[in-house]
């Protein structure tokens, strides 16, 4: 029996994983229904690599991950969701598959065993012309292959297992190895020499060729069967920029699942529009940037620029920094992909071709170009690359001519490269080097644009309502660099630039670190997340420093620097010269951070689009980058607090986080139960001396009111006589229950209990 599709109104993201499996997730159904969402939005459910904690390394597309409970547990989850009227949205991973454990991936294992004769040889994007398939697993030792053994008809290298091709098993392990379709090489050769396309620079994730109809059918059969049966109502497509032909892929997916809500993890740069794909929208990073920017005081930009220059001893240009980090990603982390591209341009000297392609990728202003804007982006990249490298004029011209031809193989592959260069160069490197004001260093954001004025946000929301009304909105995901409430508190620093400069200068003098930019990033992160467990901050510091790759790195860590860095973190807890001051300052700005948190949450939930709540963020959440943001969530506490709210409890804005849960649950329930109040979008004017501190919009009956720049508001005397004219004469606030019946309300009264309000007509 086929279920009727359930319209997706609001989602709740759960990081389903072996230690929180499908049965544990099923236990959330009642709570999520009470919270007000319409759908559970799960991490990938197909079989992933053994022990995977995220599911994006799928090894078998034909079955539900047994580590999550398998198909029986999925059926139990569906029954639990249906029993409370909820639907399911699933995450899929078309771009790549997990190959870290070859024996776990039947298709990859067969390719290793049979080479180009494998029935799965066309599944993976392998450059067979360059010889054997290189697997970067060996230690950095010229005699590493001496450790090979043959056990049970397989080659073994320590814990790694590999198949042996038929008829090649005689002789020593080294002799057998040399007859295989693959070659085991040092792990350091991965970035430079691999012969298969990867996900970014992750050699354990091999690119899939879903542009091949047979590969698409095989890797999507199970997911599409669920869609056809009505067992899923939505699909989230991971990393479409990595695909050879995203538009063609999404058209095929839409044809196969015509009634399914379809969203893509497409990261849009500042001002970039989503291509006209047959999808319902993005996963919401564009909304995240717009919403969070409202709470950042743009007047502080010059102060933070001056502080950054003074602390680091140099003026840093975001454009120059990202050019350098992207160029480094192109020529080092993604050197193997660059080599493959350069080989497609034999008419150009090999070194010049590599340099020209790397410069074009470093100068490309977006993740990748799509018609019709792709031609413009390529022209801009050519101009910038030519400005930086006048010696490459001939090569740049020759390469650019090729890239303008959509049927050219080089032009088809180059966009896959630019997306990876942007992700590795900016998200995973520049965001850790550019520490001017880290609240803006977020996926889909633009650190060079300091805040968002309300007028710009309203224009964004109006356009979104008109063009992508069912696109997702979010404030936190498993990929965000900091949790939404950490960013909200960090936004307060923009209201106190001189105070912050004085404090952080003193701390950095008391506990010096050779890398001043990293030190500034760590002090900001600590203030934003405080109180944060010591071991979590140590883990974050290590990841941030290695991602920045300035003073240490993943492949060649610097023990002396990392010791000094960890000593800095310990000083935040133990050094009396800084620890007390740090804790006191964090506590001082926390109430303003809470105000920002409630404001951005209300706007995100009430604005046009399908709002997602990331697991646990219905209470205050001080998560940092993954894996920190995938920590277990205490749902028992959340159930208890929600029950108290439903019993009439009116919480204060304090460290329980219940005020945020109130905002989340009441807004989501209003959207679910009274959808007619959320069918339009109109900015609303506020009149009076503090008007610039209010963000107000009418969704077609429901009116959302949020406070921005709360410290400056207080310093200016509060709301005073600032008023809001209501669209109907009698409205009630869903957070306080107060009724307003004279058509005009003073914000000092409306926002006396909470810094936010959601007004609806009384019934």
UniProtKB/TrEMBL annotation:
Against Pfam families, the record matches this protein to:
Alpha-amylase
What PANTHER family does its record include?
Answer: ALPHA-AMYLASE FAMILY MEMBER (PTHR10357), MALTOOLIGOSYL TREHALOSE SYNTHASE-RELATED (PTHR10357:SF216)
User: Per the UniProt record, which residue ranges are transmembrane?
Assistant: none
What's the domain of life for this entry? Answer: Bacteria
Q: Which residues form the Glycosyl hydrolase family 13 catalytic domain?
A: 15-400
Q: Which organism is it from?
A: Micromonospora gifhornensis
Q: What is the designated name of this protein?
A: Malto-oligosyltrehalose synthase
SMART domains assigned: Aamy
Which Gene3D superfamilies does this UniProt record tie to the protein?
Glycosidases (3.20.20.80), Maltooligosyl trehalose synthase, domain 2 (3.30.1590.10), Maltooligosyl trehalose synthase, domain 3 (1.10.150.200), Maltooligosyl trehalose synthase, domain 4 (1.10.10.470)
Question: Cross-referenced CDD domains, in alphabetical order?
Answer: AmyAc_MTSase
Supply the gene name.
Answer: treY
The record's InterPro entries line, in alphabetical order, gives:
GH, GH13_cat_dom, Maltooligo_trehalose_synth_4, Trehalose_TreY
């Amino acid at each position: 029996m086929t279920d009727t599709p359930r319209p997706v109104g609001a989602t709740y993201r759960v990081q389903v994983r072996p230690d929180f499996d499908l049965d544990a997730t099923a236990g959330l159904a009642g709570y999520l229904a009470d919270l007000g969402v319409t759908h559970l939005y799960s991490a990938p459910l197909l079989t992933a690599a053994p022990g995977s904690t995220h599911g994006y390394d799928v090894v078998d597309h034909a079955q539900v991950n047994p580590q999550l409970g398998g198909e029986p547990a999925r059926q139990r989850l569906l029954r639990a969701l249906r029993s409370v009227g909820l639907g399911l949205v699933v995450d899929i991973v078309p771009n790549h598959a997990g190959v870290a454990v070859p024996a776990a991936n039947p298709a990859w294992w067969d390719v290793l065993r049979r080479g180009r004769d494998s029935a799965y040889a066309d599944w993976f994007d392998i450059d067979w012309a360059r010889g054997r398939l290189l697997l970067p697993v060996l230690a950095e030792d010229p005699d590493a292959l001496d450790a090979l053994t043959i056990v049970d008809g397989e080659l073994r290298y320590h814990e790694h297992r590999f198949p042996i091709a038929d008829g090649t098993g005689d002789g020593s392990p080294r002799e057998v190895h040399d007859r295989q379709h693959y070659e085991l090489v040092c792990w350091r050769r991965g970035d430079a020499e691999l012969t298969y396309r990867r996900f970014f620079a992750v050699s354990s994730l091999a690119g899939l060729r879903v542009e091949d109809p047979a590969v698409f059918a095989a890797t999507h059969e199970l997911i599409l069967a669920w869609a056809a049966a009505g067992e899923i109502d939505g699909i989230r497509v991971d990393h479409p920029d990595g695909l050879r032909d995203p538009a063609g892929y999404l058209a095929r997916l839409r044809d196969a699942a015509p009634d399914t809500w379809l969203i893509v993890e497409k990261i849009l740069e500042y001002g970039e529009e989503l291509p006209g794909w047959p999808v319902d929208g993005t996963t919401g990073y564009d909304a995240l940037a717009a919403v969070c920017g409202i709470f950042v005081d743009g007047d502080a930009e010059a102060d933070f620029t001056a502080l950054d220059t003074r602390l680091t001893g140099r003026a840093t240009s975001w454009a120059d920094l990202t050019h350098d980090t992207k160029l480094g990603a192109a020529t080092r982390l993604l050197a193997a992909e660059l080599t493959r591209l350069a080989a497609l341009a034999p008419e150009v000297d090999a070194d010049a071709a590599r340099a020209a392609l790397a410069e074009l990728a470093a100068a490309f202003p977006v993740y990748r170009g799509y018609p019709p804007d792709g031609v413009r982006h390529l022209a801009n990249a050519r101009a910038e690359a030519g400005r930086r490298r006048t010696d490459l004029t001939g090569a740049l011209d020759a390469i650019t001519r090729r890239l303008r031809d959509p049927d050219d193989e080089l032009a088809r592959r180059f966009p896959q490269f630019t997306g990876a260069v942007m992700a590795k160069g900016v998200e995973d490197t520049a965001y850790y080097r550019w520490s001017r004001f880290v609240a803006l260093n977020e996926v889909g954001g633009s650190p060079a644009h300091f805040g968002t004025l309300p007028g710009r946000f309203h224009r964004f929301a109006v356009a979104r309502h008109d063009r992508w009304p069912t696109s997702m909105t979010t404030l936190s995901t498993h990929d965000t660099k900091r949790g939404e409430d950490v960013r909200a508190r960090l936004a307060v620093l923009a209201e106190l630039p001189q105070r912050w400069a004085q404090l952080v200068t003193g701390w950095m003098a008391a506990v010096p670190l050779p890398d001043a930019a990293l030190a500034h990033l760590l002090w900001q992160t600590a203030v934003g997340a405080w109180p944060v467990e010591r071991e979590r901050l140590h883990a974050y510091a290590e990841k941030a420093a290695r991602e920045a790759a300035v003073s240490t790195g993943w492949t060649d860590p610097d023990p002396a620097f990392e010791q000094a860095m960890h000593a800095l973190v310990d000083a935040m807890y133990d050094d009396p010269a800084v620890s007390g001051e740090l804790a006191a300052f964090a506590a001082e700005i926390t109430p303003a951070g809470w105000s920002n948190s409630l404001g951005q949450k209300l706007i995100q939930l009430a604005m046009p689009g399908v709002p997602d709540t990331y697991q646990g963020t219905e209470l205050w959440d001080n998560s940092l980058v993954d894996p920190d943001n995938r920590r277990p969530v205490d749902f028992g506490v959340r159930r208890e607090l929600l029950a108290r709210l439903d019993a009439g409890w009116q919480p204060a804005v304090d460290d329980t986080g219940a005020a945020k849960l109130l905002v989340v649950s009441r807004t989501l329930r209003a959207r679910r139960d009274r959808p007619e109040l959320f069918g339009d979008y109109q900015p609303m004017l506020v009149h009076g001396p503090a008007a610039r501190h209010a963000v107000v919009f009418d969704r077609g009956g429901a009116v959302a009111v949020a406070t921005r720049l709360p410290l400056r508001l207080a310093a200016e005397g509060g709301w005073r006589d600032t008023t809001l004219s209501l669209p109907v004469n009698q409205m009630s606030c869903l957070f306080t229950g107060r009724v307003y019946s004279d058509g005009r309300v003073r914000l000092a009264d409306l926002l006396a209990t909470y810094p936010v309000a959601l007004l609806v007509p009384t019934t």
